Amino acid sequence: MQAWWYFCSLDTFSLVSMLWFMVVLELPRYSVASIAIGFEALWRRPPVPLFVQPAISILLVGHNEARVLRRCVMGLAEQTVMQRRSQVQIVVVDDGSTDGMIRIARSLQQESLVDTVLHVQVRGGKSAGVNLGLTACRGDIIVIIDIDTTLDRDAIERLLPYFADPHVGAAGGDMGVANPDASLVARLQDIEYLITISLGRRIGDMLGTLSIVSGAFGAFRRSAILGVGGLDCEVGEDADLTMKLRRAGWRIRFAPEAHSMTNVPETVPALIAQRLRWDRGIVTIWFRKFRSVFDPRSATFRLLDVMALLDVLLFQMILTLVFPAYVVWLWYWFDTFGLTILGATLFCYAAMDLLALIVASALVGDLRRGMGLLIYLPGFAVLQMCVMRQVRLIAVLQELLLRTSYRDPYVPARVMRQVEQI
Predict the structure, then answer these.
(1) In the chain, what is the greatest distance between 2 CA atoms, to the nearest angstrom?
(2) From 189's CA, which of 71, 83, 135, 136 has a CA 20 to 30 Å away?
(3) Where do transmembrane segments lie in this chain (predicted)?
(4) What is the 3-state secondary structure (H, E, C) of 177-202?
(5) CB 121 within 8 A of CB 202
(6) Do 345 and 21 meet the contact criterion of CB atoms below 8 Å apart?
(7) 56-180+208-264 — its CATH code?
């Protein structure tokens, strides 16, 4: 309580001097996001319906997914687009599985639930599997879905109207957590997905700076994805493909009406391993491959691409590197009282996350879900500031200094060696 009255007694300059990390670096981002979502709510219009329904190819690529493949395909059979079954093609790629996935896929093909099955003996990674699958896809729109992703019955249908705009190259759906009751860690990720995907990607869509269509559930114009040469063999191949499409001049859209769910890590070690891989991919893809985004002399220079990359650079990399310096600064100038200031910073994060959670829940039409998550907000703030921010710092340093992603088992070593030679 004494700390509260102390902060209240400070003048504006003194308060900002103590909380400069939050006020100068974080608050502007939240303010811009709040203004953007206000405009989005006022002026967003549903996409214009397609007059002619396009042919669709649904591409499922998996390694050792025998346990869930049948359930996935049976779920696809209930999609509303399957009412036009003759216009829908389902392609399954077995990427060197050893658990009998190919037998399940062949059985589904014999039951006419799957149209095309492709199989490779040795795993090549998801990018290679998708590229192989693209050779068999006949649809004008290609929907790529992770086999363990579950969809609302109209999820694919909800993606299609965005392609009425001939400049749209890809559209990604909303994504929630399928296993929030599995553990506290999973529950905290439920909050994260609401804020960063359901809300954050709406804002990116409104500003025209959306920089990722999730590989777990996204639709791509066939001519667009083939025009950029398919997927590169990378960790974070979905972000890489999205940036390639942006650089080629295609618009990227977010379809909040297209709902999907995915299983998330249930333990802290599993979550850290996942985020280390994702965050290392940020450095590799966005700042090794796409530095030319900042070159105004480039023929493909676009201000929106600069804004998209700056968002990642400032708020995912620079803030990550500055935060440890802020903690050291607090300790140097304020000694143990620095912990109190750090606690005040954590309180500010929790307050902003509270607002974001309520807005996100309202936008997805599930305020009850948001209210049920309020009790977990303090834990979410602690996880993000005290754990995940440090994980991102480690990932950035690993990638900048050691290029760790090039040894990530997500992409087979023999494939990555060939990539490095190229």
Answers:
(1) 75
(2) 71
(3) 6-25, 312-334, 340-364
(4) ECCCCCCHHHHHHHHHHHHHHHHHHH
(5) no
(6) yes
(7) 3.90.550.10
| Long-range contacts (CB closer than 8 Å, 24 or more residues apart) made by 366-373 | 369/194, 370/194, 373/187, 373/190, 373/191, 373/194
Cβ neighbours of residue 242 closer than 8 Å, sequence gap 6 or more: 170, 210, 211, 212, 213, 252
Give the side-chain half-sphere CA count within 13 A for 360.
29
Pairing of strands 116-120, 141-145: unpaired
* Beta strands in 123-227, from DSSP E residues, in sequence order: 141-145, 150-151, 168-177, 217-221
Domain boundaries, the chain: 1-44+181-207+265-415, 56-180+208-264
Residue type, 319: L
Q: Which residues pair with 60 in a beta bridge?
A: 92, 145
For the chain, 422 residues long, give each residue's pLDDT as a single digit of tens. Answer: 566 677 777 777 878 788 888 888 888 777 777 677 766 666 667 777 777 789 999 999 999 999 999 999 999 999 999 999 999 999 999 999 999 999 999 999 999 999 999 999 999 999 999 999 999 999 999 999 999 999 999 999 999 999 999 999 999 999 999 999 999 999 999 999 999 999 999 988 988 889 899 999 999 999 999 999 999 887 788 988 999 999 999 999 999 999 999 999 999 999 999 999 988 887 777 776 677 788 788 877 888 888 888 887 777 778 888 899 999 999 989 888 888 889 888 888 898 899 889 988 988 888 888 899 999 999 999 999 889 989 999 988 888 887 777 777 777 767 666 666 55
- DSSP label of 260: E
Name the amino acid, one letter, at 13: F
Q: What is the distance between the alpha carbons of residues 27 and 21, in angstroms, rounded to a whole number?
A: 9
Tokens of residue 255, six digits:
């379809």
